[in-house]
Amino acid sequence: MKKKLILESGEVFYGNSFGRDLEIEGEVVFNTGMTGYQELISDPSYCGQIVCMTYPLIGNYGINRDDYESIEPAIKGLIVKEVCDFPSNFRSQMSLNEFFLKRKLSGISGVDTRRLTRVLRNFGSVKGRIVHHDVDDKEVIESMKNTILSTDQVIQVSTKTAYASPGRGLKVVLVDYGSKLGILRELTRRDCDVIVVSQNTTAEEILMIDPDGVMLSNGPGDPQDVHGATKMIQDLLGKIPIFGICLGHQLIGLACGATTFKLKFGHRGGNHPVLNIKKNKVAITSQNHGYAVDQESLKNTDLEETHIALNDRTNEGFKHKIHPCFSVQYHPEASPGPEDANYLFDEFIDMMYQFKNVTV
What's one GO MF term for it (predicted)? Predict the structure, then answer.
């Protein structure tokens, strides 16, 4: 079925529908990964977004049971140059189109994704709508200008009820702002006893669990829309070790007095170089964020910058100068992507043990 993507900025891209025949609207962003589309589709951080894949062929290794990052996909839609209908992989259980049909998702193929990416790089992330080919462009553009996208993405994707992933090691509370299963896998791989709690859990409720550490997960949207998180972090600082990833990193920054801003077109993909300032060592990282912590604002806080992005020199990590707390903007659990930064989970384990030894 013929479809078209209309951007709020006025550009129109024509293509063919795959998955469910739905008209969808969301923030249009691009991802530079060559693989990892299954993890991307199931990553809660893409809640409300229509993702353009810059790599031209998507779906060539199908969908399998092992590579999900959440139970329910939160992505709004997918834009590809070519969707593969006949995947070839020994783990494949269904095609991308079959998966989209089963999960009631919609996508558009046949789009000039390289041109679309250039538009997004020039204009920044913009609202877009995938509609039938005969819909009036001007009416859609005018309608989008009067539409305000949702700002409660974290509430949508966070768990409503606390649950446990038992282990016999250190007890970790994972605050779920839209957590990827990859984070849980890395913690359980290290035998942590993990309690996953909702995004609105208070510091008092966390301390009642008596954990050895707290992990603040990734998640979608603007960190300033996550109400209550900064107070919770402020109430925990110094009382328990904290490790933040992506949105969790931004929330720690806000809690410590820094500010955040929206990037023009964000960092999304599995090939982003990040410099560890102290080690003078570069890691290739997996990233998915549209906001960043302002580096100038860090100068008036107790946070010390530890990592920077080599593509645009934005902040990618910091640690607290006084309390046991550090965070990174990228994804050390990858899923998908390189595992260069996986050691950060081990540093979190070490930090928890050191804190236990000091406080015993």
Answer: glutaminase activity
